[in-house]
Amino acid sequence: MPTVLFIAPRFGSLDRGMEVFTGVIGTWLVRQGFTVKILSGPGRTLPGIQSVHAPIITRERFYRWIRPDVLCRLLARAGLGPSELEAFSLLCSASSTLDACGDADFVVSQAGWRSAHWARKNFPKAKIVCVGHGGVVWKELAFADAFVALLERDREKVRNRLPELQTTVINNGIDLERFTPAVGRTKGRHILSVGALVNGKGHWRLLDAFLHLPPDVHLTCVGSGPEHAALLRHPAAASGRVAFRAVPHEDMPSIYQSADVYTLASLEESFALVYFEALACGLPVVVHDGPRQRDIIGPDGIYVDVTNPEKYATALLAALERPLNPASRARIAQYSWDSVAAHYATFLNSLQ
């Protein structure tokens, strides 16, 4: 059976959507007879999967070396972010681990264009598969044999510009056995936001809107990142009704089940798993009124201009008045991880 190498710099040390994806898809492919390897920085391993670890400079180390706000400005000017720097440091040190990587029939590149370029250079006989976790990145696709889009609009964009590239659409998935509505819980006034504390997630917009909410409303922001200190200085954080927490992914179902509304103030998302996790737990979901959000969430979303604090607050209040809706699970039942992984196995086999 074919060998698949995933490049996932923070696998085993972070639990974001991409790391969850890598573990679930990799485990499922092993069950189907594939040989699966994961190239990453040091971290936990999974049964049946060969882990190839190389030294990596993590974002946490960067944050200890330099003030996060200064770092972020410098990285932005250079067109780099913490994820790109983590990937770059991994690939610089990975040359010493090539023997451990061995041969691969497919390399699933998930760390930007440098990852795809590195894979093309070191695995010339492999099919390089790029996954659109961050949407369409043209520089990355220059080294790809195939592209997995998370939305149809991304596939069409790639087809129009690169018609020779093999493409498909496979949405991200969700564990519907873990993410379920709370049983017997009475609805309250608790808003939840889950996302890295980085500027792109727009948590400051949510805090601006929170200032317009009644004093019986509480907010929990789950995530970590360089914006933490700045967010703590926001006037809303001084209200005593805003909590910031870092929660391991295995504990997230109970976090959703303790909330009454989910929201994320980012202006654009490639395909946020957190939307599906919230919907699976029956929560009303309030997001920015953008085309990608509407593609992902569909009729179950509450859409608002999150750049307008008063309108954002009004939408959150309306969502708090909505009853919990376990029926929202029905539309996302097609996105079970088993179904998603089966699509990946079929697509990889079609590339041989």
- First and last CA, distance: 11 Å
- CATH-level-4 superfamily name of the largest domain: Glycogen Phosphorylase B
Q: Specify the CATH architecture of the largest domain.
A: 3-Layer(aba) Sandwich
Q: Give the SSE string.
A: EHEEHHHHEHEHEHEEHEHEHEHEHEHHH
Catalogue the unreliable spans. none
Please, how many helices?
16
Number of strands: 13
CATH topology of the largest domain: Rossmann fold
Structural classification: alpha/beta
Shape: globular
Describe the structure.
- The chain has 352 residues and is α/β, with parallel strands linked by helices.
- Helix content is 39%, strand content 16%.
- The protein has helices at 17-31, 59-65, 68-77, 82-94, 98-101, 112-122, 138-141, 152-161, 203-210, 228-232, 252-257, 273-280, 291-297, 309-321, 329-332, 337-350; strands spanning 3-7, 35-40, 50-53, 106-109, 127-131, 146-149, 166-169, 190-194, 218-222, 242-245, 261-264, 285-288, 301-304.
- Helix 1 crosses helix 16 and helix 4 (82-94) packs parallel to helix 6.
- It is globular.
Keywords summarizing the entry:
352 residues; alpha/beta; Rossmann fold; 2 domains; 7-stranded parallel β-sheet; 16 helices; 39% helix; 16% strand
Layout of secondary structure:
Layout: E1 3-7, H1 17-31, E2 35-40, E3 50-53, H2 59-65, H3 68-77, H4 82-94, H5 98-101, E4 106-109, H6 112-122, E5 127-131, H7 138-141, E6 146-149, H8 152-161, E7 166-169, E8 190-194, H9 203-210, E9 218-222, H10 228-232, E10 242-245, H11 252-257, E11 261-264, H12 273-280, E12 285-288, H13 291-297, E13 301-304, H14 309-321, H15 329-332, H16 337-350
Parallel strand pairs: 1-2, 1-4, 2-3, 4-5, 5-6, 6-7, 8-9, 8-11, 9-10, 11-12, 12-13
